[in-house]
Amino acid sequence: MDLSKVQALVTGGSSGIGKATAKAITEAGGDVVIAARNKARLNEAAEEIGATPLQCDVGDEEAVVDLIEKTINVLDGYNVLINNAGYGTFSKLVDLSASDFAEQLRTNTIGAMVVGRESAKYFINQDYGNIINVSSTAGKKGFEGGTAYVASKFALGGMTECWRSELRPHNIRVMQINPSEVQTSFPENAGMEERAFNETKLVADDIAQTICSMLSLPDRGFIPETSVWATNPQ
């Protein structure tokens, strides 16, 4: 599709990959609504990149229903969902509480499902749409301490495959991107130590560029899934 025709909702759009993707779309001439929980940071990002801010916790089903209704009213022909909202909880199995595990799934998996569900209803009605689920290479292979986060991303991958099967007859492209480590505020938000910038590792703009490339393919085709790795991280 022509990126200037994009009318997108980007969840988790106030920072990191979401913000970079929203900025890339607006710079290409598209219109964007960004959603996030932190109102102050959301409004600051929206002003910086020229997007419309709508505060929302995707883990709140009623709030998501309201978000999609407002998005449809704001955008002239809502046609792209960047399903990006998420965070990480990391601990070894023996230290992982059921409540922390459930909370991880509430945002990363159930939240993504509800945003996808409500968006799909509108896309089916107009017989066109694009959904890009932002997963992770953690959704392809597990690692020590990753039980909650990895489970949430493996589940997202399974949902993506189901949606793709259901929605293709309605001219809806369902795609997934799996970034490896990207230098954003993700580690600090997950309670890890702040890391120094490393020029050999990925940045949010790398993922935004890839997402825009996936969207810009003519509508007769689509890229079901792609992963992005740093070439030689040191």
Main β sheet profile = 7 strands, parallel
Assign a percent range to the helix content.
Answer: 40-55%
Basic shape: globular
Summed over residues and divided by their number, the pLDDT gives a mean of 96
The count of domains is 1
Spatial arrangement of strands, main beta sheet: 3-2-1-4-5-6-9
Name of the top-level CATH class = Alpha Beta
Number of continuous helical runs: 7
CATH-defined topology: Rossmann fold
CATH architecture, by name, is 3-Layer(aba) Sandwich
Q: What is the CATH superfamily classification?
A: NAD(P)-binding Rossmann-like Domain
Radius of gyration: 17 Å
- Class from helix and strand fractions: alpha/beta
Instruction: Measure the end-to-end span.
Output: 36 Å
Give the H and E element order: EHEHEHEHEHEEHEHE
By DSSP, the count of extended strands is 9
Q: How much beta, percentage-wise?
A: 15-25%
Low-pLDDT regions: none
